[in-house]
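A quick word before the example. In earlier lectures we treated sequence and structure as two separate objects. From today on, think of them as two lines of the same record. Here is Ribosome-binding factor A written that way.
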Amino acid sequence: MRKNSIKNTRVNMEVQRELSSILRDGIKDPRVAPMTSVVAVEVAPDLKTCKAYISVLGDEKAQQDTVAGLQSAEGYIRRELAHRLNMRNTPEVKFVLDQSIEYGVSMSKKIDEVTKDIK
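And the structure line, produced from the sequence above:
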């Protein structure tokens, strides 16, 4: 796996910041949960594609509805990114549901249960 260059890291951070702002202020779709956050962004080195890892606070149905709402608003999100960022190419955004926060919470609960039984 190739190490990210400084330029690619800066682009990732900038796209993540702008995506968070767009999701917070611009999306009016009722399917998108209000507690949606952008965890990480990976922009390809050619700036054509982008994977946005999102985390949704809620149950499974809220997560699936949020992903569907974001995919339907992809054109609007891409246009807003083009207006806000000064880049040669505006990346095509693909939203991926990130389960790492939920996994960390569940592992923490399991560890607490085990340590409680030991005491």
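Notice the following. Residues 6-118 form a domain with the GMP Synthetase; Chain A, domain 3 fold (CATH 3.30.300.20). We will return to this example when we discuss secondary structure assignment.
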